[in-house]
Specification:
By secondary structure, this protein is an alpha/beta fold. It has twelve helices and 14 strands. Helix 2 packs antiparallel against helix 9, helix 4 (61-74) packs parallel to helix 5 (93-99) and helix 9 packs across helix 12 (360-371). Bound molecules: pyridoxal-5'-phosphate (PLP).
Length: 375
């Protein structure tokens, strides 16, 4: 029986393994393992990709988001106890970055079609304590619309992007200037380069993006023990450095990202065209945005049977995410919150294989297996 693993990073990285090894050897031979030229060039390349002025490469995605919020606190724009609107359908790290800084996540339910923050619910959540919105471009689909922009502007809210899942996605910004790459939509962004993400390192890494010079300088200092220059600490900072080795791996990956995004879009189109069973709802493809398909997430009522059936037919799947943050034990303060769309999604979503070596042919084969599912 042919097997379709959900994700095998060794296989996924196989097409560029020689380039990765060459780059790794070059770093090893250079003797420069932190703050080297790859880190500097990665920062330039990411800033350019997202059309922002500054990029600070850091240790991971959670640290990137923590640094953005901490940076705004040091600048006096956010304070202990302030509220940040966060979509309820997200990975728990989006909330952790807020609560770790003594701020309060204010959960907003999502739309069934985008599975991202529902901006029609924003107004109902506003209060004087709400100072920012964290946007999460979940599964690689940009979260951006006119209403969101207008509300943020009218109420002076900071827009922080959690772009852990959508590097190089694009949102159409009608009324603005055409198309904008995620990471450059709001005031500041935290990105993750965790190995499974659509731009993944071979270990932990992340970055902060912003066009705000003061925030960039604050984050850079905070990530370096709070030092603005050597042995001069202006903040009680952190150590959030990126490894030079990971920066080098990411620069190799970044070169191939347009091709990889194209491939993921082709797989997504193939699934959406060939999965025809009424038992499975495929994710929306939005012609006015560029989705990057970190995950291809379908919805199915009898999920356990569906996954067991696929597994028995050689198709690996995963769930993103079975338990929403407001149902996690560590966030018991949200126990009584009811966020119906998020909760339904949590009980129905299934992620299908999309990373290399899944090609058009295997996507058709997987679709055919799915179409033969009876619940
Ligand atoms: C992965 C992820 C993070 C955290 O990134 P790490 O690099 O694992 O710390 C944050 N938010 C979202 C939405 C993620 O998917």
């Amino acid at each position: 029986m042919k097997r379709y693993p959900f994700l095998d990073l060794k296989l996924a990285n196989e097409p560029i393994v020689d380039e990765l090894k060459t780059a790794a050897c070059q770093v090893i031979d250079s003797g420069r393992y932190l703050h080297g030229e790859h880190t500097e060039l990665l920062e330039q390349e990411m800033a350019q990709l997202c059309q922002v002025k500054y990029c600070v490469a850091v240790s991971n995605g959670l640290d990137a988001l923590r640094l953005v919020i901490r940076g705004y606190k040091e600048m006096g724009l956010l304070h202990d106890g302030d509220k940040v609107i966060v979509p309820a359908n997200t990975y728990v790290a989006s909330l952790l970055a807020v609560s770790d800084n003594g701020l309060v996540p204010c959960l907003c339910d999502v739309r069934p079609d985008t599975m991202n923050l529902d901006s029609s619910q924003l107004e109902g959540l506003l209060s004087p304590a709400v100072k920012a919105i964290m946007l999460v471009h979940l599964y690689g689909t940009p979260c951006w619309d006119e209403q969101l922009m207008a509300i943020a502007k009218q109420h002076g809210l900071l827009i922080i992007e959690d772009n852990a899942q959508a590097v190089a996605a694009q949102a159409s910004t009608a009324g603005l200037n055409g198309t904008t790459t995620t990471g450059g939509l709001g005031n500041a962004t935290g990105m993750s380069f965790y190995p499974t993400k659509n731009l993944g390192a071979l270990g932990d890494a992340g970055c902060v993006l912003t066009s705000d010079e003061q925030l960039a300088a604050t984050v850079r200092a905070l990530a370096n023990y709070g030092a603005d220059r050597r042995y001069h600490n202006i903040y009680k900072g952190l150590n959030c450095r990126i490894d030079e080795l990971q920066a080098a791996m990411l620069r190799v990956k970044l070169k191939h990202l347009p091709q990889e995004t194209e491939r993921r879009n082709m797989i997504a189109r193939t699934y959406s065209e060939h999965i025809t069973t009424p038992l499975v709802t495929t994710p929306a493809i939005f012609p006015h945005m560029r989705q990057v398909w970190h995950q291809y997430v379908v919805r199915v009522k009898h999920r356990d049977q569906f996954r067991a059936y696929l597994e028995a037919n050689g198709v690996g799947t995963d769930i993103h995410y079975a338990t929403p943050p407001h149902r996690q034990p560590c966030y018991s303060e949200y126990k009584s919150c009811h966020l119906p769309v998020t909760e339904t999604l949590a009980s129905e979503v299934v992620s299908l294989p999309i990373a290399h070596p899944i090609d058009e042919q295997s996507a058709i084969e997987i679709s055919n297996i799915i179409n033969n599912f009876n619940d």
